[in-house]
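Shift notes (night). Ran HTH tetR-type domain-containing protein while the centrifuge was going.
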Amino acid sequence: MDSNTSSEKREPIQPRRAGGRQRVAELLAAASDLMAERGYEATTMAEIAARAGAKIGSLYRFFPNKEAIAEALLQHHAAIMNEEYEALAARAADLSPEELADILIDLMVILYPRVKSLPALMDARTDRAEIRHTSRSRALQGIAAALQVCASGLDATAAQDIAVVVLNNMKTMLGMVLKDVPTTPAAPDELRSMNRLYLAARLGSYQRE
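Came back to this:
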């Protein structure tokens, strides 16, 4: 059996017991760490098992091949982001535009350790454009929903327009933290201030119900 793929067509096992669910979580966390460090193609099943402190047979018990792990990670990352945006929308009515701006600008930075293999996973997929589009749409919908809860008079079109600007600010903040874009020690705080002023100006004129 190849260390990365298998001819088996079975679906990954969904454990019912807490111990099994914990083991799957550990295996996925190990896979995510390795793929973020080395890339999808360079990561092997044996390395994933070793990083998780598991026997290779335990890994194959839950996942027939590396492709199944990648699919599980994509679903896991999507669930994490959905939960975060839903939780933000649930509390946005009690936030000022400035408070919401501060939460949003750092959201990707906070989420990154939990979804850090997403870029490597997308790079290895033939449907990367579709995955990227879906991920972007999910983020825009989540941001727009929080904006409309915070400012109840904000219409859907304006919320989407503002969400695009905020999402780009969020990506820039993550890039600064990861040193993927030009930055200085004070630049992240400047970006936070800019984002706060922008949302205060755009949302402040809308009356809450």
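The radius of gyration is 20 Å. The chain has nine helices and no strands.
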